[in-house]
Design brief:
The protein is mainly alpha-helical. The chain has one domain. It is elongated.
């Protein structure tokens, strides 16, 4: 799959390669591809209750 990047996206991708952190909000082309092909990586908004439940679940995993 080929992805056409704009100049600002190219700059952001180079910065991501240097830091090891990719902010897909700054690279819309990559964000679109990830959302289409890896929906499990999509950013999801959680309610306070869902967030608390997720935090408790992760804390239990860490304690094991």
């Amino acid at each position: 799959m080929l992805i056409k990047l704009t100049k600002p996206e190219k700059v952001e991708l180079l910065n991501a390669l240097k830091t090891g952190v990719i902010d897909t909000r700054k690279i819309p082309a990559l964000d679109k591809v990830l959302n289409e092909h890896r929906p499990d990586l999509a950013i999801k908004e959680l309610s306070d209750e869902e967030l608390e439940a997720r935090i408790l679940e992760l804390e239990k995993k860490v304690k094991r």
